[in-house]
Specification:
Layout: H1 3-20, H2 24-40, H3 44-56, H4 61-69, H5 71-76, H6 80-84, H7 106-109, H8 114-121, H9 123-128, H10 132-148, H11 152-169, H12 189-205, H13 219-245, H14 250-253, E1 254-259, E2 262-267, H15 269-278, H16 282-304
Antiparallel strand pairs: 1-2
Bound molecules: zinc ion.
Length: 318
């Protein structure tokens, strides 16, 4: 049996078996493993881990020892905010902002400060379309407070969370209402860009030698600039894939891979390579910018808290 026939045969067998087990419980399970990750996605476990981990190395000498001792916690807990999305209703809008929802030129109309934005649009509207940049400012204030209080556990927990939210706003599709290509028949593109491509290329090809963390005179303006960059890139993310998808048949674009005993439909590696090349380094650039952004936010909170001595701090989290 040829390879393609074999795969088709296996899939048919799998589908037949599946139909016998289709009951509401199984459907809920399938919804959880297939649909929800598509809707909620962000860099994925690999990407978020990677970003928090590498950010540690950009910190100044007075901070790096404490962060290095706790680097495993910061990496392992980089996806905690995504896990909370299923438990806490308010969590979801903290990870994105639909910039295309706002007027033609949102730069003129969308206030950078939360209170001003609420006056113009109402809190309900803002929450419905994502609040990522405003939430990052809340977390930044919390991190500054934790530094002032020299609260080791709080510093680590908030640093890990803040790293996640900052990384999320660097993903172009986190700044678009067409976040998973649902409006353009490109369902799955969210995970393709932010999980599949980094998993295939980050360790082999990306350069993670990045300059030291910078003090941010205005974290608020910095994060909004990153949001606008993402919003501007979202169009490219979608259009490039749309264009190449027309040149290749379905069975070239997708492959079935077994992961931990579960057969998953993935974008095929060869197709991923074509998309990755056409994006012209975009995923690497955004990942590097995210790492530098995370380190700079941590550093700025520490400076603004009066540069407390971290050398004696011990955490109970490890
Ligand atoms: Zn997220």
């Amino acid at each position: 049996m040829g390879m393609r026939k074999k795969i088709r045969y296996c899939l048919c067998k799998w589908a037949n078996g599946l139909s016998r087990w289709l009951n509401p419980l199984v459907l809920v399970f399938l919804l959880i493993i297939f649909i929800l990750p598509l809707k909620s996605g962000s860099w994925g476990f690999f990407g978020h881990r990677h970003i928090n981990y590498h950010a540690v190395f950009l910190l100044p000498p007075a901070m790096i020892s404490f962060y290095k001792i706790n680097i495993r916690y910061l990496a392992d807990h980089a996806v905690d905010p995504d896990k909370r999305r299923y438990a806490i209703a308010e969590e979801a809008p903290r990870h994105y902002i639909d910039m295309d929802h706002y007027l033609q030129d949102p730069k003129d109309s969308l206030p950078k400060k939360w209170d001003d934005a609420v006056l113009l649009f109402s809190a309900d509207t803002l929450n419905a379309h994502g609040i990522a940049p405003w939430w990052i400012m809340v977390m930044q204030a919390r991190l500054k407070k934790a530094f002032r209080e020299c609260n080791a556990d709080a510093i680590l927990k908030i640093s890990a969370d803040l790293g996640h939210y900052i990384a999320d706003v660097h993903v172009p599709l986190h700044a678009s209402s067409n976040h998973n290509g649902q409006k353009t028949d490109q369902l799955g593109i969210h995970g393709f860009w932010e999980s599949r491509l980094p998993e295939l290329y980050a360790e082999k090809q990306y350069d993670f030698i990045i300059g030291p963390a910078a003090y941010l005179n205005s974290p608020l303006h910095f994060i909004w600039d990153r949001v606008y960059e993402s919003a501007a890139a979202a169009d490219t993310v979608l259009k490039v894939e749309k264009k190449i998808s027309k040149a290749y048949p379905m069975d070239f674009r997708f492959a079935y891979e077994s992961r931990n005993g579960v057969v998953l439909r993935q974008y095929a590696a060869q197709y991923a390579g074509i998309y990755h090349r056409k994006l012209n380094g975009m995923v690497e650039r955004r990942m590097r910018d995210a790492i530098h952004g995370v380190a700079s936010f941590w550093f700025t909170a520490w400076v603004d808290a009066g540069q407390p001595d971290l050398s004696q701090l011990r955490s109970s989290l490890n």
